[in-house]
What does this fold into?
Amino acid sequence: MKIELIFCLLLYILSGIVISDNQSSLDYPSDIPGFFYNGSQDFRYDPQGHIPPPPDNFQNYNRNITGPNNQGPFSPQEFASNPRRDNQLTEREGLISNWQFPLISGGISLIILAIILIASISSGSQYVFQSTRRARVVLGLCHLISSIIIGIFIISLLIIGSSDDYMDPFLSTIYAIFGIVTYLALSSLIQAISLIKNRPLVPLPQAHLLFAVIAIILLLSIRIPGGFSQPLSIIIVSTTIIPGAVFSLITTNFIHKPEKRDVIDGEQTITRSLPVINQDLPPSFPEKLSGKYHDIQVIGSGGMAVVYKGTRNSDEKIVALKIPVYADETTGKTFLNEISVWRDLSHPHITEITDQNIFPVPYVELEYLPKSLKELTLPVPMEKAVSIVEQIGSALQYAHDMGVIHRDIKPGNVLLTDEGVAKLTDWGLSRFIERRDDTRNTSFSLFYATPEQLCPDQYGNGDQRTDIYQLGVLLYELICGNPPYGTQNIGELFTKIQKNEYILPSDINPVLSPFDDIISRTLQADPSNRIQTVGEFLSILKLIEFDKN
It folds into this structure.
């Protein structure tokens, strides 16, 4: 935007130079010896080249300009023999003198306005007005009034310029600012429309301020024709230019670039007491652990922790490190609960904890696995989907036998080894089954939330059937490519979950009809109507016959 503004400013300065050069050759007879302009409204003639005192019969240049004793090139005698010298220009040349400069100046201003307007429209979609509608409308009306006032000033300039009584050799000097004033009038009008229509235009208000400053400087620097005094020039500037500049400054303060808001995906863990962590803005790795690990990279984040990939200094082994983001009581209890549950779980399809500590900072060191189900292209072949679900099911069956439920089964929490072995990770929402009254952690993942996580008062706080529900959602997504409720709207999703309004696999693809029964029995809102154990789920899954080709 700065480039466009600088270009427009240089273009306008160049146009002013051209206008000034043309005017200097047309407005006064500088080629006549002894003819001098003294900075006022008169020209004086002296054959010796000296400027004498003004004669008593000195008159306006347009009517009769004489030298001392009524002698000289503009004396009555000279005028009788050469009347064209009195008016300086023929009627045709006078027309050009009166109109070519405002037309050129105004045309250049329209080009500049078009450039800035195009830039404003292209970039305006990135901005919003942070104000009430009433404030925008009031400010828009102020811009409209400012545009009208400037328009009246422009008309006044044209009237003065066409008046024989007030024509003087330097009238077209003010035409150098004619275009700027025209620009300001149109800019105020466009800003009024922009505010009323709630369509920010950037950098139109900023450009208005720049050209307003230029107009003020020029108006106060040149002599306004028609006998205007300097105080009157200040009044004109105060009533025409400054209000529009003030309104543009207020408009600029109304315009803001909205903060980047992340779209919540289905796998983000929603924690009622803590905000979601944005993976694009991870916290820095704790310096106190830099002596133990190097080559640190962020590979994931959740509701309470960030997961790093790092190389252990002692043996150069690549590991994963899960480190809490916050240092509050809730995070501390949740993290300690996860460690206490996870460290006692040892199964081929559960990621292994290799180290953990609360000093110098709380952290868990895990085996590093390169990818997760989230990175796979879905859907996958039915045989592969069944194999993955069977592996995770065996891990859950083991955990349930140990008295632990996971409560956060989703593609992002299923990691894959290089050989394709699936392992369940992230036990941050886990708890012991017997602690049915434990409501300290009420978090859930959006598109994998169970009815009991959404409505604990109606369905209880969950047990092993919570994991069975999520295992069914995982199977559905692997074979169908999307979660089972066919909506991204959170309100609709919650309603569909509680009303059992899922889409059967056969409705997605008739080939998937063998999975309709197990999906229907798994995704029941009432836990008592679901498959009751993982063992039963796995048994039904093994009985499903499908085309493995």
In short: The chain has four domains: 2-27+90-256, 31-87, 269-367, 373-543. The first strand starts at residue 35 and ends at 37. Residues 100 and 528 are 89 Å apart (CA to CA).
